[in-house]
Every structure is written in structure tokens, then in C-alpha cells.
Design the sequence.
């Protein structure tokens, strides 16, 4: 790995000047007292374990609703004024072979209703046996419902459900009772996610360790990335636990914490440990190797973490706490992973020194082949591959781009919906209850639309308004009004599906319908979906703008080029096409649903594509920074464009591929979840990461950079001056200014060897291990 900023033929250590290397303040802090640094990290991690305990129990499983939307206002008002209008707890009473109108069944149902009414935290209890409402009785007459409202926020509602559910579920006299409703669905989803996350960690950790041993060879070196990841995960759990005291946090964010905590920690540790081992192999002592590693690879890690954090922070512009939660978790875990990699890891390397290569478990597999030679062959293999791609650059650029676009075409048919009980596995009790209601009842007490009517009204005025509602296209039936003081509500049943396009249009028509002196607002599942889609459409340009603008700025600071940042944004977007196409083809259209064990609902939850875009774009930038930093460093040294591209890919191709495979393993482990959205998130991002590393970075980037040639590095004079002053580089010092044209003042020097790049395994004549 060549890290040269001095004259041609000068090594990284020689370029720093005679005598001991001048270590920066950060390096001195990390290297001066490594034992104290590790002890402090151990104490902080132990405190994080204590502070983050029980975090999942305080998280919510909702968050798809925009809090400032009309549907949110109407829902809150109806809960306050008419608790029975918004039941979130349903007891499905199965009478077996008897009719629900049988006297013994009715008597038992009455006792259950009385018991439920007496429970603390329960309001708005009603039942079929009280009201004889057709919507509460199954069409076959063998099942009926008791509906109620559990008050409080999601955490309080979950605690109430845990307390009362065992007392009601199961056999009760002549009937069998099953517990369902939205609160039961959310609680069961939260429980399953916690169980699945533990299983994913048990799968991912040993598999990841095996892969790291294969990459590093040394068992000692392989353990270091896992330790960094564990510290990042535990620290993020503590941060999320603190945030739950002030705001709602989605339990789904726990999956991102685990995935990014392990994935990014491994990325950063791979980069740093590999560089440290190269410095040792080149003859540096431990302290000098750590210092050089921090000033070079460490700088790139910090820069990469910033780009990923920016991509994730874009989700803060959305009002839904489901998306905001991923920003909280993502930013925290990225920064903590970078901090652990830049503080904890160097301290460990200071203590280990050459022993970082101990316990070489690959020795038997190599059968006598020297590691240095094998590493050199790997680097030369990537170099030859890069040369092949650049010789046929137009072909590779066109074929790869067309292929990625074709893979993304299914996304043009995306249909957005909302999450429901079908997210759960088929045997989940709350899902079974909802399926019985959906398939066997003429209407759902927790479905349909509700129109809140506020203002003083007379029976005649309410009757006139009801008549007007009934005439709106798409209305099947209107029930009500139910009145209380200066408010009332109507229940509106649509002709279409619960969240279908017809019902969404009905929501819009009801909201624009004249209501005379009344103030009206509409809520219900379809209304929540309409408001969620509108909120995302309203904020999405801001989120994309933040990501694009900051990415352009950061990549410019890294490269000093105007064209490379634009290429980075476009190519990163292309790397996501396969993920979005697969999401629609698999999860919306139901292909592979049997193999992957999920139920397709025919649509995609509205917030998921936004989440997956922000996460996958950030991870793509992570790999992009690793590659571009090496290309830029070599271009500064030699001024040879093609040589620099070949060199960059030869030195990072294996590293990026290994990191991508390991991160994909973690995401696939997350994708084994029994909850469909979590499965979609894990498998989708795993696909995006692999496509980015193995297709975009390996094929498209070198092909495009070959086509753009030396113009790749062009920047106008004012921007060159800006980059000279503020630019970043993985080199030993900030770049002296890259003009983009060989020979200009402040530009790169001459190549050390005309027409060829140094082979992996050498550094200007010194033997180097290419490492991972």
C-alpha cells in the first residue's frame, strides 16, 4: 500500500523528514498511554451496557404516521372524545359449533365484557352482544368480537396488554378467546423483532469471525474488528435508551444498530489493521506504524464516517418517528464505530505490535506458499482486472449501466401501502385474529374511515351532512353520527379495499367536501397512508438535496475534482437500482415468497424505500471513499491517471470486496427475521452492498474514469485554491493542491516508473504485505 507524498522513490516514513515522525495531537493521545485508553474504553463500555439495558422494551413498533397530519389530529381527538370509536384491542370469541347468539355463549361473553371493563387502563368497551352490530359478528355466526381501547402511549399500552392478555386468552367456559387488534399486533411484532435480532447476532458473529480469519489469517487481528463493533453497538444502545426519555424511538432501529455497528466497525478496522500491518512489514516500529496509520487510513475512516452519517441524517427531515429513529441509531453507531476504530483500535495495536499477526490459522491452507506472495498475487490480479476494464471501457460502462437500469425497472410499478398484521409470521396469534376478521366479518371495527365533525350542530344539520357524505363516490355505507358535546363522528365504509387507490381517493374527496359550518377531519388506515405519502413527498426533495449537496462537497474536499463528486453521486444511485427492483419484484409482487417465508400484501410500506435509500447510499459512499482516496493519493504522487485508477483498485479491490461480503452476511442474518419489513431491509441492503462493491466499484468506476481521462481531475482555479487550503487526503499531509493537469503548479509529480504501477507486495523496492 503506497502512501507517498514526497519526491518519487521516497517512502512514507522518509517523506516525513529525518528523525522520529512528528505525531499529531490525536496520535500522541492514542499512543502515549494505550493501557489507560483501553481501560477507559472498558469502563465506558460497561457503563453503556448498564445504561442501555432494557432499551428494546421502551421502543415503539409504530411511527409510520406523520404527527402533524390531519389523520393524527382526528385520531387523537376521537381517542379523547369517543374511545369506543378507535378500538385497538379485540377479543375474538369463538363459540365452536354453537351460534354466538346461544344463551350460554352470550352469558360468558357478557362476563368477559364486564371483566375487561373493570381492568385498569381500558376504556370504550363494547361487544356484539351489547350492540348487535353486524360488523362485530362473523358471517358464519360462529365468532364475534369484544372491542376496547387501551390508553396511554405504545409502551404503556404494551404493558397493559402484557398484564391482561394471559387472563383472557384461551378457553373460557363454552368459548375460546384469542387476543388481537392493533396494539396486540404491535406488541407481538416488537417481541418477535427482539427475538429475531438475538438470533441474527448469534448467526452473524461466528460467521463474521470465520470470514475475518480468512481475510486476516491471524485470529488476533480477526478479533479486533468484532471488538470495535461490539463497543459501537453497546454504546448506541445506551444512546437510544437516553433518547427514549425524550422522544419516540422505533424498535426497528435496533436492527440497523446491529448491522451498521458490525458492518462499519469491520470496514474501518479492516482498513486500519491492514495499513498497520503494511507499515510493520515495511520496517516501521510499532509507534511509527500506528502514527502513520492514523494520519493516513485513520483520516480516510473519519472522512468516510462523516459521509455515512450525513446520508443517514437526511432522515431527520421527515416527521415520522420511524424514519427519525433510524437517523438517531445510524448517526450514533457510525460515529461510535469511527471513534472506537480511531481510539480503541490504535491503543490495542500499540500493545500488540507485531503480535497482531499471531495465531495464523491459514498456515495449513497455504501449503507452504508465502503470505507475501499470495498477497502480491491478489494485488496484481486486481491490477490486471482494472487494466482489462479500462481497455474495454465503453463496453463495460454501457453494458453495466444498462444492466443496472434493467434490474431497477420493476420499481416503476411500485405501489405504496401501510404495514399491517401480515408483517408477522403466519402462526402469530394477533395475525390469526386479524385474518379471521378480514376474511370472515362484514367490516372491521378498527378499519374503515372516521370523519370527525367539530362545531355546534343540530340533528337536522347532522342528517344533511350524512346525506352529503353518502353521495360521495366510493362510499358504501355511513354510520352515525355519534355525538358528544360539540363534536361528533361518522363511520364511513369504502367500496374499495382498505388502503386501495379508490379508498385513498375517497379520503381526499371527503376532505374537500363542503361541510357548511362544521370543521371536519378524516382518519383511518387509508387516511394515515395518504398523509404519510404526502409528508414523504413534501420532505423527500430536502432529504435528497442534503445528501447530494453534502456528498458533492465532501468528495470534492477529498479529490479536488469537480467531475468525480458528480460521478460518485450518479454511480452510487445506479448501485441502488438492483435493490429497488428486487424489493418490488420479490416483496410487492410476491416472487420467492414461499422460499423467503413471507406474505406479500401487494404493496411496499411507504417509508421503507426512503430508509433503504439513505442507508444503502451511505454505505456505497463508504466504499467509494476508500477507493477514491487511494486513486487520488497515487495521482498526486505520479500524475498518471490510468496508473492511479489501476493502483487504487489493486490496493482496495480485495479490501472492499471482503468488507462488502462481511457486511452482506450481517444484513442477511438480519434478513432472516420473521417480520417482513425487517426481512426486506436486511436482504435489500445486502444486495445493494454486493452490487456496489462487485459491480459499480469493480467495473463501472474504472470504466467511467478511463472514459473521462485527465478531465476527471479538472477544477476551476478558485476551487483549486479552496481545495489547497481545506482539502483532505489519505496522504501524510493535506494535498498541496491537485490541479488536474500534470505539470501545473502545485500539481502532482512525475511517475516513479514510466508506464507501470508498483506491484502489490512492493513499495518503491520495499517488500510489503498487501494484507486483507
Sequence:
Amino acid at each position: 500500500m503506497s502512501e507517498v507524498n514526497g519526491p518519487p522513490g521516497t517512502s512514507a516514513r522518509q517523506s516525513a523528514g529525518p528523525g522520529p515522525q512528528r505525531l499529531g495531537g490525536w496520535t500522541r493521545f492514542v499512543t502515549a498511554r494505550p493501557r489507560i485508553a483501553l481501560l477507559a474504553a472498558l469502563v465506558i463500555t460497561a457503563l453503556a451496557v448498564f445504561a442501555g439495558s432494557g432499551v428494546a422494551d421502551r421502543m415503539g413498533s409504530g411511527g409510520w404516521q406523520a404527527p402533524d397530519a390531519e389523520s393524527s389530529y382526528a385520531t387523537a381527538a376521537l381517542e379523547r372524545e369517543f374511545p369506543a370509536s378507535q378500538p385497538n384491542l379485540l377479543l375474538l370469541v369463538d363459540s365452536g359449533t354453537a351460534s354466538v347468539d346461544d344463551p350460554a355463549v352470550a352469558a360468558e361473553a357478557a362476563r368477559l365484557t364486564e371483566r375487561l371493563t373493570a381492568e385498569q387502563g381500558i376504556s370504550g368497551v363494547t361487544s356484539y352482544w351489547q350492540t348487535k352490530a353486524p360488523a362485530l359478528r362473523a358471517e358464519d355466526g360462529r365468532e364475534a368480537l369484544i372491542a376496547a381501547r387501551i390508553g396511554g402511549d405504545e409502551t404503556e399500552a404494551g404493558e397493559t396488554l402484557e398484564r391482561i392478555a394471559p387472563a383472557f386468552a384461551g378457553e373460557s367456559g363454552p368459548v375460546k378467546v384469542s387476543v388481537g387488534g392493533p396494539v396486540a399486533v404491535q406488541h407481538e411484532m416488537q417481541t418477535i423483532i427482539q427475538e429475531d435480532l438475538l438470533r441474527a447476532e448469534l448467526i452473524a458473529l461466528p460467521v463474521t469471525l470465520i470470514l475475518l480469519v480468512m481475510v486476516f489469517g491471524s485470529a488476533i487481528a480477526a478479533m479486533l474488528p468484532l471488538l470495535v463493533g461490539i463497543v459501537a453497538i453497546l454504546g448506541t444502545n445506551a444512546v437510544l435508551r437516553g433518547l427514549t426519555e425524550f422522544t419516540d424511538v422505533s424498535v426497528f432501529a435496533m436492527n440497523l444498530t446491529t448491522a451498521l455497528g458490525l458492518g462499519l466497525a469491520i470496514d474501518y478496522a479492516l482498513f486500519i489493521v491492514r495499513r498497520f500491518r503494511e507499515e510493520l512489514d515495511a520496517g516501521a516500529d510499532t509507534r511509527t506504524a500506528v502514527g502513520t496509520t492514523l494520519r493516513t487510513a485513520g483520516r480516510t475512516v473519519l472522512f468516510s464516517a462523516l459521509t455515512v452519517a450525513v446520508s443517514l441524517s437526511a432522515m431527520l427531515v421527515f416527521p415520522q418517528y420511524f424514519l427519525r429513529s433510524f437517523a438517531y441509531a445510524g448517526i450514533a453507531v457510525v460515529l461510535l464505530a469511527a471513534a472506537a476504530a480511531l481510539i480503541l483500535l490504535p491503543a490495542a495495536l500499540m500493545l500488540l505490535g507485531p503480535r497482531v499477526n499471531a495465531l495464523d490459522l491459514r498456515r495449513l491452507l497455504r501449503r507452504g506458499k508465502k503470505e507475501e506472495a499470495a498477497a502480491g498475487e491478489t494485488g496484481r490480479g486486481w491490477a490486471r482486472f482494472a487494466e482489462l476494464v479500462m481497455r474495454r471501457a465503453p463496453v463495460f460502462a454501457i453494458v453495466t449501466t444498462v444492466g443496472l437500469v434493467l434490474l431497477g425497472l420493476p420499481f416503476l410499478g411500485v405501489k405504496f401501502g401501510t404495514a399491517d398484521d401480515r408483517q408477522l409470521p403466519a402462526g402469530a396469534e394477533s395475525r390469526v385474529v386479524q385474518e379471521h376478521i378480514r376474511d370472515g366479518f362484514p367490516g372491521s371495527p378498527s378499519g374503515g374511515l372516521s370523519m370527525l365533525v367539530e362545531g355546534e350542530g343540530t340533528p337536522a344539520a347532522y342528517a344533511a351532512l350524512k346525506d352529503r357524505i353518502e353521495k360521495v363516490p366510493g362510499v358504501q355505507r355511513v354510520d352515525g353520527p355519534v355525538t358528544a358535546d360539540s363534536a361528533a363522528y361518522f363511520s364511513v365504509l369504502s367500496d374499495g379495499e382498505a388502503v386501495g387507490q379508490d379508498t385513498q381517493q375517497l379520503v381526499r374527496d371527503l376532505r374537500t367536501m363542503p361541510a357548511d359550518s362544521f370543521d371536519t377531519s378524516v382518519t383511518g388506515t387509508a387516511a394515515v397512508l395518504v398523509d404519510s405519502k404526502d409528508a414523504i413527498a413534501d420532505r423527500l426533495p430536502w432529504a435528497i438535496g442534503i445528501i447530494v449537496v453534502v456528498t458533492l462537497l465532501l468528495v470534492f474536499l477529498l479529490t479536488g475534482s469537480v467531475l468525480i463528486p458528480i460521478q460518485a453521486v450518479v454511480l452510487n444511485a445506479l448501485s441502488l437500482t438492483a435493490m429497488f427492483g428486487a424489493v418490488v419484484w420479490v416483496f410487492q409482487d410476491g416472487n420467492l415468497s414461499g422460499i423467503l417465508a413471507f406474505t406479500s400484501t401487494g404493496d411496499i410500506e411507504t417509508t421503507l424505500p426512503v430508509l433503504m435509500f439513505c442507508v444503502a447510499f451511505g454505505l456505497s459512499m463508504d466504499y467509494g471513499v476508500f477507493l477514491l482516496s487511494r486513486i487520488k493519493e497515487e495521482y498526486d504522487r505520479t500524475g498518471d491517471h490510468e496508473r492511479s485508477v489501476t493502483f487504487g483498485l489493486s490496493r482496495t479491490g480485495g479490501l472492499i470486496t471482503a468488507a462488502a461480503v462481511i457486511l452482506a452476511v450481517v444484513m442477511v442474518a438480519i434478513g432472516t427475521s420473521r417480520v417482513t419489513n425487517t426481512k426486506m431491509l436486511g436482504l435489500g441492503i445486502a444486495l445493494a452492498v454486493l452490487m456496489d462493491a462487485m459491480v459499480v466499484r469493480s467495473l463501472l468506476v474504472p470504466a467511467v474514469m478511463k472514459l473521462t481521462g485527465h478531465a476527471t481531475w479538472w477544477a476551476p482555479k478558485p476551487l483549486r485554491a479552496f481545495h489547497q487550503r481545506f482539502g483532505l487526503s489519505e496522504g501524510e499531509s493535506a494535498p498541496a493542491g491537485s490541479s488536474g493537469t500534470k505539470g501545473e503548479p502545485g500539481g502532482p509529480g512525475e511517475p516513479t516508473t514510466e508506464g507501470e504501477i508498483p506491484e502489490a507486495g512492493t513499495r518503491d523496492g520495499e517488500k510489503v504485505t498487501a494484507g486483507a
